[in-house]
Amino acid sequence: MDSSELYHVKQQFILGAYKTLVNLTLPDPSSPEYTPFLVYKARSHVALNETGAVAQIIPSDTENVALKAVAALARYIGASATAEKDAALEELRDLCVEIDGDDVDADEREKGYVRVVAGTAFARAGEVEEALETLGAGSNTENLEAVAIIVQIYLSINRPDLARKEFDRAKRWAEDDLLLQLIEASIGLVTGKDSYNDCNSFYTEQLGNPSLSSPHLLTARGVTRLLKGEVPAAKSDFEEAVSQQGNTPDAETLADMTAAAGLGTSKLAEAEQLWSQLASEHPDYPMVADVINKDKLFDELAAKFVVPPLAVASA
Known about the structure:
This protein is mainly α.
């Protein structure tokens, strides 16, 4: 049974309150909750793209498999060279093999952290099948964090039907957990169930918590409002999210602001400025990569198109 402190840390992480968690005071290293606290703190740094900070809080000589996995994830995301990224992925593969052994010094919680972190890295690397296998898709896994990532992967490849199956399977064993509600909201956000009202209500309810500061939730609610045609309200959420991010929006918020700028009464120049910022600061963001690929495809097809001669009327 988790302590109330660890339960609170998990909820903060689930709801994207990463800036709060990076300032988290860790318990004594001899505490049984030291590793879980450190895992969530380090993962919060990764979520904020502060990968260098992870090396400062996780000892390089740690023998804990969960901490090794988070450190490898940070190196993967922070690396610019392909060889460095590949090395980090290989380390995560080795850790996945290690935790399946009989002599590994790790409890089930730590093994779960390894699978979740490794699955996250594999998904980001485009290794979808490996990610799903690592996370236990289609199995009887009772790791709700793993289920949440599986659902996100399925939604990202336009398979909401499979995402719903994973969610329904999890409902058989998971309690009415906050993460379970978040998973359902994510599915609703993609499928448009109940005209986005359910997911909008969930985000609004969580944002009503005075002890929570989560630009991620604000951005999510802004998306639901955008999809419901409430453009001014969506822009308000995005602006508040940017404010909570220190006026430096992350890729997700910036992408949504770009979409919002192209709707309503906004000027085209605003959308173009935001798009230019998104493309230059986050060239690997999925929306940017998709638009660039479509642009190249259009140019290739246009180059092959032969304009037929104008028809000349006979005398």
